[in-house]
Design a protein that fits this description.
Blueprint: H1 5-16, E1 22-27, E2 30-35, E3 38-43, E4 47-51, H2 57-60, E5 66-68, E6 79-83, H3 90-104
Helix pairs in contact: 1-3
Length: 115
Amino acid sequence: MAYDEKLANHTREIISLTHKKVEEKKMFGGLCFMVNDKMCVGVEQDRLMVRLDPKKYDEVIELEGCQPMDFTGKVMKGYVFVDKAALNTKKRLEFWIKLALEYNKIAKASKKKKK
């Protein structure tokens, strides 16, 4: 699994400033940050996956480097990909992570699969 270690480290630092219950899982060909047992952001080789409030989707999809998440061939309206090139400052990366953390407070956790 290839993901950008530098981007992952910056993401980890930003999240750890305000959240202690963070789990990192390798998935989707990258590294996913689970906050409060909910998917929050993911780091891939050349982009960041952001889970955000679906109500803000139409607003943020127009921002630089942002594109729909169509991992399965179907657009997922509460998720976007942001190109690494658009995350070239700490302030820009913080913007996207804060959007994800803001939604994480109200997002529903996925149901646990029975073993």
